[in-house]
Amino acid sequence: MNGQPLRAAIIPVTPLQQNCTLLWCTATMRGAFVDPGGDLPRLKAAAAQSQVTIEKILLTHGHIDHCGSAGLLAGELGVPIEGPHEADLYWIARLAEDGAKYGITGQPFEPARWLTDGDEVNVGDLTLGVRHCPGHTPGHIVFHHAQSKLALVGDVLFKGSIGRWDFPHGNQQALLDSITQRLWPMGDETAFVPGHGPMSTFGHERATNPFVGDAALAA
Fold first, then answer.
1. End-to-end CA distance of the chain
2. Spatial distance between the Cα atoms of 112 and 119, rounded to a whole number of angstroms
3. Residue 102 CB partners (closer than 8 Å, separation 6+)
4. How far apart are CA 184 and CA 33, in angstroms?
5. pTM (2 decimals)?
């Protein structure tokens, strides 16, 4: 295990190739799925292969590709859902409708716990901090494990890009503020798992990102 307290595996799901993350505590082998949008047999097989006992589901936001099957999986595994922020109730309520539009299973659900800025979630012996990062959706949150220098940022930030803000209740300025005020202070060396595409670090994005890099924002 290389002495790392946290391990993570990225499993792309749904036709939208959304990055579901299986993360777990190496001391207890208890874990969570972050944003299990679909393809549940593949997710359950990944947990079994890694010998991880899933104890909860964590959600960054309410879009179909991130949480369409979260309620189904929670029911099958008998585990609670934590997140997103309650401001994403709008999106969760329309999961069935959006699922039909995208050809993805969508089932509305009620999380056991809505999350807000400054909250903490526990996975095994791990404690992850929660930051509210609106803009892509009003209730979007980010999970941060400071000890591992790892953040799970959903659709706020991508390698070389940022999240869309043209959906209902999206807000471009809120998105930019979330990135610069909530993500950058986590440190340049912090790696992040985006909702789609490859991982990067905040430092790399500050140096190169055409939307929120330091040079772009200074222009």
1. 44
2. 14
3. 14, 15, 16, 64, 65
4. 25
5. 0.97
pLDDT above 90 covers a percentage of the chain that reads: 98
Is a pLDDT exceeding 60 seen at residue 79?
A: yes
- DSSP secondary structure code for residue 64 in this structure: H
Question: pLDDT at residue 2 above 90?
Answer: no
Task: Specify which residues 30 forms β-bridges with.
Answer: 25, 53
Nearest alpha carbon to residue 169 among 100, 113, 50, 89: 89
Q: What is the distance between the alpha carbons of residues 87 and 90, in angstroms, rounded to a whole number?
A: 7
How many CB atoms sit inside 10 A of residue 181's CB? 11
Q: 3-state class of 143 per DSSP?
A: strand
200: tokens are: 């990067």
Count of CB atoms situated within 10 Å of the CB of 27: 12
Looking at this protein, which amino acid is placed at residue 121? Answer: V
**Strands 191-194, 200-201: parallel, antiparallel or unpaired by DSSP?**
antiparallel
d(CA 183, CA 168): 23
Count the Cβ atoms, other than its own, within 10 Å of residue 112.
Answer: 13
CA distances from 128 to 44, 93, 135 (A): 23, 27, 22
